[in-house]
Amino acid sequence: MSGAISGYLVFAWSGVLLFGLGLFGFIVHRHLLRRLLAFNIMGSGSFLVLVGLAQDGRGVDHVPHAMVITGIVVAVASTALALVVFRRWYRASGRTDLPEDT
Amino acid sequence: MIGLWSVPLLFALPLSLGILSLLVVPKWRPRLIFLGLPLLAAASLDVLAGLATVGPTVYRLGDWAAPLGINLVVDGLAVGMILMTTLVTSLCALYAWVYLRDHPSSTTFFWPLLWFLWAGMNGIWLAEDIFNLYVGLEVMGLAAVGMVALRATPQALAAAMRYLLAALLGSLAYLLGVALLYGAYGTLSMAGLQEAATNNATTQVALALIILGLLLKTALFPLHAWLPPAHGGALTPVSALLSALVIKASFYILMRLWLVLGPEVTPEFTAQFLGVLGAGAVFYGGWMAWRQHHLKQLVAYSTVAQIGYLFLFFPLVTNTGPEAARLAWDGTLMMLIAHALAKAALFLSAGNLILAVGSPQISHLVGISRFRPMSLFSFGLAGVSLMGLPPSGGFTGKWLLLHSAILSGQWWWLIVLFLGGLLSAAYIFKVFRMSFREGPQIDRSVTPPLTLDVTALILASVAILIGLTAHLPLHWLRMGSVFGVG
């Protein structure tokens, strides 16, 4: 039994790890594409937590699957919008990062 | 069930209109408001009538039971927010209909984004579970970012990008919190969480993540850096919508979740800490507003300050006794609604003044009082509510908060309320001083179309009127909450 529990918890913990790595990248990097990639890694991390943690000790649960599918749609849409804004910003300013606050 | 069938229309209608507006030729896109606004107004009033006849209730979408189906909560608070959204968005849409004639490149995508924004907001007001709140936040947030980017200048694009990054980070923190809560309790509904949640490390971490994410989206000091460029730099009707309504959505979630989970789960200092951040926002936002040279940047920093008042809710409602908590609830909602109306009016009339003098600089307003008294009058009326002078919604809200602070013995929040009012007066009168000064700079001004002035004036007048008849909306808003009488 304990093996099964830790099996599911592995997903949740790797999700937390991915979220942390993504957050680190999001804060450290200035290049907007890298920050966007970091955002996607954070997203995958939270999806893993969502699925992994909910199945721990309770068996297969369909609700988090539905939520993750919705979450993936949202993440794809956000990424697409971010890419459009980034491309326009790059064309208008020639920069790949945001100017610091004045 | 009379009246309740129109509940799903509140987001089905704007979504269909958004898709429809993408399908018709661009020339027809603005005209869809003459179809959409009456329909949405009717649906909102019908839901109000439903609330009046059957009382607060939970509407099951398609009659599917949760968690497979979606539960929508129809209580006083939700209906109040819906009516506020309908009023402010309708007037901003009428304003935009005229205003955007001078911005033909922006008008193509403004209208679809407006409908999606509206659908997202109504989804948030009605959602009963924390995951649909997330979906609502994203629909609304992505539409809002698109609207900021409409202007397509480098500054607007940088502001939109900054806004998007902040919104995405906030959403992910929120989503991770939701994942932890679901993992721990196997439920997403607020009522279910209230029953199941216990005070342990998982709940605390989850709630901390959710609160942090929502604070970033609400732009509470010191997480406000994205707000002034995004709100101050957007097209005028967009600024009004974002400042009046969009930031309220994340605060609304925070408020609801706090009443469900907050006091039991968080350490005692959390509520006071949120209040202190709010106080910081009031002082810093007011000070920065006073220092601005651009009119719309001034109004945007005023939003940073006004958000601060809303956060006095948390220390005043937590462990303070039923009477003080009820006053805090009333006062916060009055501040929230008054700010929505007054800030939309302030942004719209500021936009009119900018159109009139052809410059966003406050120093160029010299002598404008002789030419545009009506725009300035709306600006002044909205200013009265923001400063909290009687009789206005802002005054009533502050008065209730003040009573709550005295009743719960937390005198230090009085200082925030008084000094904040003085700071607001300072930046509002800064604009007025320039307008009434006689100078050689201009001897004529452009006359903006009448619709622009009238919409701003209506919003400002309602911000005043709601203060005079405050007991009625406050009575409605309490329905179905823990502060309700029946």
Structure commentary:
The complex is a heterodimer of chains A (102) and B (486). By secondary structure, chain A is an all-alpha fold. Chain A has helices at residues 2-28, 32-55, 62-93. The longest helix of chain A has 32 residues, at 62-93. Chain A is elongated, with a radius of gyration of 17 Å. By secondary structure, chain B is an all-alpha fold. Chain B has a domain at 278-486. Chain B has helices at 9-23, 33-54, 76-99, 104-126, 130-149, 154-185, 190-196, 201-218, 227-233, 236-260, 262-265, 269-291, 295-310, 313-317, 322-357, 373-387, 393-407, 412-436, 450-468, 471-477, and strands at 57-60, 71-74. In chain B, strands 1-2 form a two-stranded antiparallel ribbon. The model of chain B has no long low-confidence stretch (mean pLDDT 90). Classes of the chains: A mainly alpha (102), B mainly alpha (486). The A-B interface holds A 12, 15, 19, 26, 32, 35, 39, 42-43, 45-47, 49-50, 52-54, 56, 58, 61, 63-64, 67, 70-71, 74, 77-78, 81-82, 85-86, 88-89, 92-93, 98-99, 101 and B 67-68, 131, 134-135, 138, 142, 145-146, 149, 152-154, 157-158, 160-162, 164-165, 168-169, 171-172, 175-176, 178-180, 182-184, 186, 188, 225.
Main structural class of chain A = mainly alpha
What is the string of SSEs of chain A from the N terminus onward? HHH
End-to-end distance of chain B, in Å? Answer: 19 Å
Largest interface: A-B, 39 and 35 residues
Low-confidence sequence ranges of chain B: none
* Oligomerization: heterodimer
The gyration radius over C-alpha positions of chain B equals 21 Å
Helix coverage percent of chain B: over 70%
- What is the molecular shape of chain B? globular
Radius of gyration of chain A: 17 Å
Do you know the CATH topology of chain A? Helix Hairpins
Number of DSSP helices of chain A? Answer: 3
Q: Report the β-strand fraction of chain A as a percent range.
A: under 5%
In the CATH scheme, the class of chain A would be Mainly Alpha
- What is the makeup of the main sheet of chain A? none
**Tally of DSSP helical segments of chain B:** 20
